[in-house]
Amino acid sequence: MNDPAMMEEFADWLASAELGQYLLAQEQAFFDSAVADVFGFRALQIGLCQHDFLAMNRIPWKGLAAACGEPGVVCDPAFLPFDSKSLDLVILPHGLDFTSLPHQVLREAERVLVPEGRLIVTGFNPASLWGVRRLLQGREDNPWRGNFVSLPRIRDWLKLLELEHEATSFMAYSPPLARKDWLARWQFMESTGARCWPLAAGVYGVVAVKRQRGLRLITPRWAPAKPARAMLVAGGNDRNPLTRSSDNETLHD
Q: What InterPro entries does the annotation carry (predicted)?
């Protein structure tokens, strides 16, 4: 089951703490770019309903689902009240970090997606300075209470569900420092890290596509065209201009 209180505390941390605001700005920029060119009829954000990560998407129907707060749909993300193959876009901002059933949450997201639908997930990277701080500090406070699922494991889970990995982005290279002025001093790491050590980012974003397996294009069976010479012969002497020409030449002689 999801822990609504833990996700609610994480949402408050994003909005209030200096480090949370830094991370929120990074993830908002990622989602704005990732969802901008996704089309369809229905899009759903699961969790963190206090922050609109679908703002830059042009799909007409956008829903918010969460177990707490004031979403449009109150539900457990591990058991979504949506029909199978009914949504074109599903986003999970840290939806696998703050649940005891990450496999089930991912399976439900795959179930409700239409073929060729997009799934976008963000999560904390354990192989980063954020993961190091979590090991040193412990898991009593947010966001360090999250699961911190590794990127290779996420890709394995996607593969098992036949969700094709399309793209990966990385963000939050600065050390997880609490003070704003300290974060500003390490701002250079955003560009340096993306160029030199992208896999050491504090947060990753993954875009996956639900492919429809087993489809085959059926084409009509056209009858093979008869060769031109065969058609001329089949037409008979009285309808064959070449034959008539030959006969005329014989009569003239």
A: Methyltransf_11, SAM-dependent_MTases_sf
- The DSSP letter of residue 165 is E
Tokens of 202: 């504090």
Q: Which amino acid, one-letter code, is at 168? A: T
What pTM value is reported for the model? 0.80
* Tens digits of residue pLDDT in 159-200: 999 999 999 999 998 888 877 777 777 777 777 777 777 788
Q: How far is CA 166 from the centre of its chain?
A: 7
Residue 144 per-residue DSSP state: T
Cα 217 to Cα 47, 210, 211, 220, distances in angstroms = 39, 19, 15, 10
- Whether the CB-CB separation of 6 and 66 falls below 8 Å is answered with no
Q: What helix, strand, coil percent values describe the chain, rounded to 5?
A: 40, 20, 40
- Residues 59-105: pLDDT tens digits? 999 999 998 777 889 999 999 999 999 999 999 999 999 999 999 99
Q: What is the DSSP letter of 227?
A: P
> 105, 98, 32: which is closest to 68 by C-alpha?
98
